[in-house]
Design brief:
alpha/beta; Aspartate Aminotransferase, domain 1; 2 domains; 16 strands; disordered N terminus; binds 4'-deoxy-4'-aminopyridoxal-5'-phosphate
Length: about 450
Amino acid sequence: MFNSLPDFEISRYVERSPKSKKFFNQAQKYLPDGVTRGTSYEPYPLFWEKGKSFNIWDLDGIKRLDFFGNNSSLPLGHGNFEVQQSLNKQLKEGVSFNAPHPAHVELAKIICDRIKSVDLVRFTNSGTEATMNCIYASRAYTGRSYIAKVDGAYHGMYDSVAFNSVGKSYFPDKKMELPNMPAELKDTVIIIPYNDSEKSIQIIKDNADKLACVVVEPMLGGSGFIQADLEYLQNLRQVTQDEGILLVFDEICSLRAGYGGAQAYYDVYPDMSAFGKSLGGGFPIGAFGGKREIMDLYKESTSGQHVQHSGSFNGNPMSMVSGVSTFKQLTPDVYKRLDSLTSKLKEGINNIAGEFDIPVQVTGLGSLFALHFNSNPIKRNSDTDFNDKDRTRQVFFGLLNEGIWSSQNLLGAISTPMEEAQIDAYLIALRNVFARNYTSIR
Ligand code: PMP
């Protein structure tokens, strides 16, 4: 039950962020919406000044715990010593060359050693390009053109995947998310519902002769860190194998599920995978890889179905050394520690919500977590349509006022410098926000 004005948290936010407000006003003169990625929020976003370890400071000098780490891209937090050392060294030695570099081999080896389904890998500058290449390679390999994707899955924003991504669920309808895309594209993208094996299998079978690939996230990232049911992934594996369709895992977020990515966590392996975010340890990156016979289509010597792949900054040494240094530190023991901190946090959130009789579902794999104010289990994007949006917004601003940064839809990530004290700090902050705004039932 609300027992104070819902906008108290926003007034407090505004009181404490005059410099961000000032910069935002200037920013709007030069950047649409004052931002350069779609992460603005009303009344205006905070501008960040610096980050160190698990802390970030806004322009007004307010320090907060960073429970999001650039959308899960900073598993070691800000300014990790070894990562900085390797970057400083690389900065002196040169930041980009149009030639192979030893760090390409090092990071490629790390991926191929850890990710069981990847024999060969190529680098890109973003996750967007990585999923794009999985689609291109699938088309070349299968000789088919259509793709199937999940309702509520974001794979970047380009023609082949700009249908039913984050936001409201449209399934079984298909919504084009960029204006005036060629109408005929609509037929080439098939939408399947997450964690609904029966419907997904039927749709895939009905379109099998046209489908090059089925692209799926083992954990639906943007729609709220919704983990897949094991049987769903197993069923997709089976039906794609039976129908000669490639199974592509978008592991751009879910790479953080564990040492071998979400595919090792589930023990279900795709034909191709796309990686990004955490792989660069904070620097821009993407990678795609998979079975040798598919990736061999990238060899110049391939005749017929050769897939062209270039990019001025592919494998830029700064991103490469940052990724290598990051992943050397992400050992199985480190993942175990992160998992246990995250379990403690999830349990604490459930307990506190219980104290206030607030319905909450906490989702997420590995060191990623998300709060959904909803009384029903969250299995797919359409379930999040019923999340309490006002409460989500209020708690987001409430947590900011309490010194916690997470995403506007309350997605969060735990970084390696964090300890129990930071988990406790999040829980105390959440309890304070609830206590200020809702009545305890205990
Ligand atoms: N796929 C998923 C699952 C993502 O979460 C993202 C980034 N939000 C992308 C693809 C696109 O990656 P990038 O922003 O690096 O292009």
